[in-house]
C-alpha cells in the first residue's frame, strides 16, 4: 500500500481518505510509546509516540499503510493533531502519577503540517489542554520536507519560542543533510538507523564521522534502531547521548509502559 498506487487508483485512494477521516473522528487511532534511553546511565529519558490505526476487522495497521495516503491531503494535520493531543495528555498523566520527573514526549509532525500556519495553534492547544511543560514536548521533523521552505522554518522558530524542543528525524537519509544543521533551530538530531551498522570497519568509521559532524554543531544525538548490544557499545565509544531501538525497548501500549517502565521509578 503506497501513495503512488492510491494515486493511480483514485477510487481506492479516496475511499481510504474517507476511512482515515472517519478513524480520526471515531478514535480508531491508537498510540504506542517507545522508550528513549540515556547511553551513559541507561536511564529512561522519555518516549516517542508512534501512531497505529486500529481498523475494525483489519487489526492494527502500521503508519506506513496510511500516513503516506494521509500526507496527500490536509488529513495528515488531523492525524498529527490527534497524536499531539493524546501524547501530551499521556505524558502529563505519567508525570503527575509517577512524580515530578523530566520525562520527554516526542511526537512526529509531517512536513505538510510544519508547512501549514495551523501548526502553531495545534501545538499551543495541545500544551494548554495537557498542561505539559513545553520543554518536555519534542517535535520530530524530517529534513527532506524542510529544504528551502520559508514558512516551515518560521514555524519551527515559533515552536522554539514556545519552548518546545525540535528534533531532526532520520538524519542522514536526505540530501542537504549538513546544511540543515546550521539553518534550522534544532535541539536534537536523530541518526537514522541505516547508519548504525557495526559490521565492518568502514561502516563503523562512517558512523563515527557522522557523529563528529553533528557534534561540531553542538547538538545532542539519539541513535535510532539499536537492535544489538554491539551497536550500543559503538554509541558508548562515540559518546552518542541517547538511544532508541528494539534491544532497549519496543513500542508499547500506555498500560505496558506503566507496568514495565514507570511502576518502579522513585518520585
Ligand atoms: P520514525 O519516526 O523513524 O519512527 C521509528 C520507527 O522505527 C518506528 O516504526 C519504530 O517502531 C521503528 N523502530 C524502532 N526501533 C527499531 C529497531 O530497533 N529496529 C527497526 N528495524 N525498527 C525500529 P513505525 O512505528 O512503524 O513508524 C514508521 C514511521 O511512521 C515513523 O518513522 C514516522 O515517520 C511515521 N509515523 C509514526 N507515527 C507518526 C505520527 O504520529 N505522525 C506522522 N506524521 N508520522 C508518524
Ligand atoms: Ca520519529
Ligand atoms: Ca526516525
Ligand atoms: Ca521516518
From TrEMBL:
GO terms for molecular function: cyclic-guanylate-specific phosphodiesterase activity. Residues 13-265 form the EAL domain. Pfam families: EAL. This is EAL domain-containing protein. It comes from Promicromonospora soli.
Amino acid at each position: 500500500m503506497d501513495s503512488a498506487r492510491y494515486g493511480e487508483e483514485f477510487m481506492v485512494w479516496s475511499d481510504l481518505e474517507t476511512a482515515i477521516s472517519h478513524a480520526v473522528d471515531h478514535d480508531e487511532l491508537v498510540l504506542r510509546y517507545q522508550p528513549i534511553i540515556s547511553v551513559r546511565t541507561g536511564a529512561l529519558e522519555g518516549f516517542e509516540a508512534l501512531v497505529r490505526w486500529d481498523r475494525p476487522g483489519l487489526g492494527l495497521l502500521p503508519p506506513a499503510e496510511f500516513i503516506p495516503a494521509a500526507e496527500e491531503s490536509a488529513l495528515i494535520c488531523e492525524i498529527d493533531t490527534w497524536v499531539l493531543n493524546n501524547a501530551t495528555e499521556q505524558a502529563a498523566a505519567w508525570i503527575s502519577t509517577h512524580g515530578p520527573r523530566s520525562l520527554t514526549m516526542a511526537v512526529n509532525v509531517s512536513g505538510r503540517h510544519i508547512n501549514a500556519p495551523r501548526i502553531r495553534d495545534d501545538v499551543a492547544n495541545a500544551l494548554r489542554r495537557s498542561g505539559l511543560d513545553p520543554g518536555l514536548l519534542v517535535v520530530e521533523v524530517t529534513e527532506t520536507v524542510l529544504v528551502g521552505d520559508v514558512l516551515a522554518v518560521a514555524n519551527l522558530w515559533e515552536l522554539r519560542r514556545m519552548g518546545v524542543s525540535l528534533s531532526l528525524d532520520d538524519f542522514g537519509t536526505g540530501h542537504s543533510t549538513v546544511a540543515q544543521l546550521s539553518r534550522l533551530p534544532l535541539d536534537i538530531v536523530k541518526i537514522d538507523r541505516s547508519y548504525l551498522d557495526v559490521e565492518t570497519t568502514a561502516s563503523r568509521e562512517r558512523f563515527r564521522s557522522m557523529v563528529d559532524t553533528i557534534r561540531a554543531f553542538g547538538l545532542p544525538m539519539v541513535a535510532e534502531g539499536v537492535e544489538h548490544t554491539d551497536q550500543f557499545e559503538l554509541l558508548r565509544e562515540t559518546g552518542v547521548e541517547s538511544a532508541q531501538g528494539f534491544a532497549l525497548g519496543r513500542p508499547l501500549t500506555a498500560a505496558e509502559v506503566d507496568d514495565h517502565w514507570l511502576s518502579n521509578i522513585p518520585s
